[in-house]
Amino acid sequence: MFANVNGIRLYYESHGAGQPVVLVHGLGLSSDMWHYQVPALAERYRVITIDTRGFGQTSKPRGPYEMGMYVEDLLQLLNFLGFERAVLIGLSMGGGIVQSFALAHLDRVLALGLISTGSDHTDSSRAAFFSNADTVEREGMSPFIESVVPKYFAPDSLRHKASEVARILQTELANDPSAWAAAARVNGTRNWTQQLGRITCPVLYIGGALDPSAPRRAETYPRYLPDVEVHLLPGVAHLLPLEVPEKVNELLLRILERVHVKGGKEHS
Questions:
Q1: Which residues in the chain belong to E strands, given as ranges?
Q2: How many Å apart are CA 125 and CA 113, to the nearest integer?
Q3: CA distances from residue 208 to 24, 36, 69, 96, 265 in whole angstroms, order as listed
Q4: CA–CA distance, 68 with 264 (Å, rounded to integer)
């Protein structure tokens, strides 16, 4: 399905019924990455997956992009669907989007689920996003993605989940290089750690112990967020919804139960 929001045609899917839960994918991915989460969550909730600006079946306007565009896209989608408030769950860049949304529109957020994401970057990581964007614009997706996708998965996942690795590689290679680069530059500007205290809704953070940035983030969030539950999972890396879907689903369902609105008052 499509919604015309903020000057773009945004693709989304809706599954189940009840309190709304919106899943936002990471850089270069699409709504398809949540295929293990949707059936588990949709048994009790209305689950919305989206292709963000520049990816999947959503419009890919010319850049530059700004984080405020992604926030406004999401706000207008919630309005289009008639949701007063929703639980927002994001992976990696998607986690950046839902954090930014909460900072701008906390009254529309029941809870946040943050997976393999952070509120800032180290200087070297920030520089890498901009360098990678330049590379992709010059050379296309293939030279960069074929080397980086294996880093998204832990060694055991690479061995035992080859079909998932191939699926992610295919998704990444299909991206429009210009749109990917525009989004990567937005992702590289992430820097709002000092503002995290304004996010007073319940927050769940899930990171993989083999993701280089996750241990630092697992320490940072509890220092700033007033209501956060942190899980650093051993033996996994970045794409946790694909690496350990059962564990991710268990943790997501737990925070959803915590903020469950009796009678479904948060959806139309």
A1: 2-5, 8-15, 20-24, 46-50, 86-91, 109-115, 203-208, 228-233
A2: 23
A3: 18, 17, 29, 17, 34
A4: 29
What DSSP letter does each residue of 127-143 carry, written as one string? HHHHHHHHHHHHH-HHH
Collect all residues with Cβ–Cβ distance below 8 Å to 170 and sequence separation of at least 6. Answer: none
213-234: per-residue pLDDT in tens? 999 999 999 999 999 999 999 9
What single letter denotes the amino acid at residue 143?
P
The burial class, CB within 10 Å (0-12 / 13-18 / 19+), for 140 is middle
pLDDT of 108-166, one tens digit each?
999 999 999 999 999 999 999 999 999 999 999 998 888 888 899 999 999 999 999 99
Distance of CA 79 to the CA centre of its chain: 20
Other CB atoms within 10 A of residue 124 CB: 7
Tokens of 208: 């993989």
- Are residues 216 and 190 in contact, defined by beta-carbon separation less than 8 angstroms? no
User: From CA 104, how far away is CA 239, in angstroms rounded?
Assistant: 27
Question: According to DSSP H, which parts of 48-139 are helical?
Answer: 67-81, 93-104, 123-139
What burial class does residue 159 get, using C-beta atoms within 10 Å of its C-beta: 0-12 exposed, 13-18 middle, 19+ buried? Answer: exposed
- Residues 50 and 118: their CA atoms lie apart, in Å, by 20
